[in-house]
């Protein structure tokens, strides 16, 4: 399929064409309301698997709201209402028959502020596998924990103090611990909500490097305020503004040759 | 007299404040270089403090001192044998004061008249001394504050230090009160155990390990040969039994209602249920006491009857259950607050891993809130141990050494109350036993608090 047709299909809310091959997440005519406030308007987008998609846009543009739709974290907000359709591998995640607990095991999330549990490093990572019964034995669990820490690039720094509290780590280490915690339940999609906004440049570089390695096995969606970060790490970029998805495309194209004037204005720093 | 003193003080303080801040404004307008270091209001406050503190101290120290001096001056007119007889001395002193205030009925003796005269003159001289000294020091403070006003003078920093001292003094009062209470109880306790003039006092071992409590046996001095018993153990077991029942009732109920209110209830239910729960804390314990005695105890008795158990009409169970009701609000309200204080980000983290609500609560929220929950329990336990009225009404006075919740038991506080109600002589072992009980009670709660603190330190999961 010609790339420009795909992009056109993604931009048009009414598009019903089949998603491109290798598409992991599909949203169609997705709307989100917080009480009276219409926070996300008619968003339709396809997100390819095993790659990094970045959501950019000014504060309050709906990018985090959309991200939280993908693992239904918005369910925890009483006033929030979602319409439209979001599918993962062709399965409607808002289907009443679907267990949200199982969905969240498939779609992991890393938050803006590192939020390790006030438990040991080991227990932080072991928590997910425990509640989902992933590990059959203690040695299985040990293995999951070690390999998750390894994949998150944290093992070398913490292997001698797995029983120390997770909250005692530095900010960057805490964030990588949260990534390890998410990886431990072997999700297919990892959502990252501004994962580096509380980190210094060195810790940020480590997390970005890690994301680059993880994209071989996981579909990663990242919300970021830093356009440099989006340009550095992502293969595809979606620009949101005032609750609308303005433009989505290859990252290179969005940053060098945007089709929409608003995208152009935003990435050149004229607003936001 | 004290009215005049305090009026003068108020006038001087206000004048000091007003004049100093006025002068500071004036100084700031002077032509010389630089502006005022401190705002005029601080110069005013500084002077006011310099007037206020010495004047207050002179009065606070001087007034009680004057009373003592005047009393001994008045009594000097009487034979010295009076000094040893406390009762007689008090009566004479009252006569002297009455005569001095022209309220003495009957013909006063010459001695009494002399004493009244001495008293009057001493008091008036002393009051004028206090007044003169206070005003002089106040004026000195005023002068010091007023003359030190200057562009460089750091009135603001000095006043800050004064505030610091005031705050420190307030904190010290609370600490000294605690220390004072401990020592006064300790003093009587030591008398109880070691005063050789006390009849029927027990040894420390008899008290701590004795299994029979019967301090009422010897009511009068001439019954001294009747053996009284000060065995503390039945009271301790009674107290612990009732407290344990109360915690078994209030712990789950309070904690679960806190979890429901903070995690599951909609805002509307919460806004409605929480105040009602807190009303429970406001019910006087004497009301809860007759609820226990008239409602709960018969119900429990009825149940027991059905299953073939013979339950005393006053039982530890009834008292413990109602006491549990009483402390539910402490546990639920405080736990609710600490659960709410656990950051939302921790909940999000657990939900995002696919944890269910109850898994999140059990594994993440409760461990994080544990220190607060433990202190809520400790407060509740302290209340339960210290509670008297419910036990008096529902559990009785019989000091049975038993762990059977269906029996009548009694607690430490109830015995203290029973011992001290009515006219008592403070030189009998029975009365002093109350202080020993009070001291041990204090010690028990202290130990419980230390244990709880250790538990919290050991298991706390600290979030930032």
Give an overview of the whole structure.
The complex is a heterodimer of chains A (272) and B (464). Chain A is of the alpha/beta class and 272 residues long. Chain A has a single domain (3-267), classed as Rossmann fold (3-Layer(aba) Sandwich), CATH 3.40.50.300. Chain A has eleven helices and ten strands. In chain A, strands 6-7-8-3-9-10 form a six-stranded mixed beta sheet, with helices on both faces. A four-stranded antiparallel beta sheet of chain A has the order 2-1-4-5, covered by helices on one side. Residues 1-20 of chain A have low confidence and may be disordered. By secondary structure, chain B is an all-alpha fold. Chain B folds into two domains: 2-153, no CATH class; 229-459, MetI-like fold (Orthogonal Bundle), CATH 1.10.3720.10. Chain B has helices at 2-29, 40-75, 86-100, 110-147, 155-194, 204-209, 233-264, 267-282, 285-306, 316-341, 344-352, 357-386, 389-394, 412-420, 429-459, and strands spanning 213-214, 229-230. A two-stranded antiparallel sheet of chain B has the order 1-2. In chain B, helix 2 runs antiparallel to helix 4 (110-147) and helix 10 (316-341) crosses helix 12. The two termini of chain B are 58 Å apart. The model of chain B has no long low-confidence stretch (mean pLDDT 85). The chains are: A alpha/beta (272), B mainly alpha (464). Chain A binds chain B through residues 71, 73, 76, 78, 101-105, 108-109, 111, 113, 115-119, 127-128, 131-132, 165, 167, 178, 181-182, 185, and chain B through 266, 343, 345-356, 359, 363-364, 367-368, 461-464.
